[in-house]
Design goal:
Order of helices and strands: EEEEEEEEEEEE
Number of helices: 0
Structural class: mainly beta
Strand order of the largest sheet: 1-2-3-4
Number of strands: 12
Oligomer: single chain
Shape: globular
Helix content: under 10%
Radius of gyration: 16 Å
Amino acid sequence: SSAASDVYKRQNYLSATNNHFMVAWSRQNSTTGSVLEFRIINWDAAAVTGIQTLDAPASTFASQPAISASHGDADLSVDLWTVAWIRDDNGNGRGNVAARRVPWNGNLSSLSTTISVTSTNRCSNPTVTSRLDEFLPGTNDRPSIVAWQERLFAGLNLHHDILASVVVGGVSSAPVQVTRDLEDLN
């Protein structure tokens, strides 16, 4: 069996005696790929769900999971963690950023499909904010912001920038993306 790597966990408080944690990790399942798995556990370490697969791309390494600090403060029917990770096609630690929403009880559905945030294949180190308190104008969703490092080339010069995108799942699961250059690390 392969050892789990890139373990990440986040907690949500439902009450003083009943809260859930989400734990996500990357598990190498072959020499050419790894899957992203997760599990929801309760405050007393009891499993709420079994181990579930969040992403299993063919011949790709799903790695570097990042989870929003909470799944929200609304009704439990719409409380969703936002998870972002890297889909690395050659094992070099860089790839495309993907994201998905996971309900508080871990019950994946068509409303939490995987969203491709980038398509440059040069990204690493994703991070995710908690869901925003306000609805994004024109939507019925409180988005999360995903930020990542991206390796960019300008002529012969290589530099890394920090970029971010607003990720909205909503009913349609179609992302609304507003990518901005946050820091030029030239």
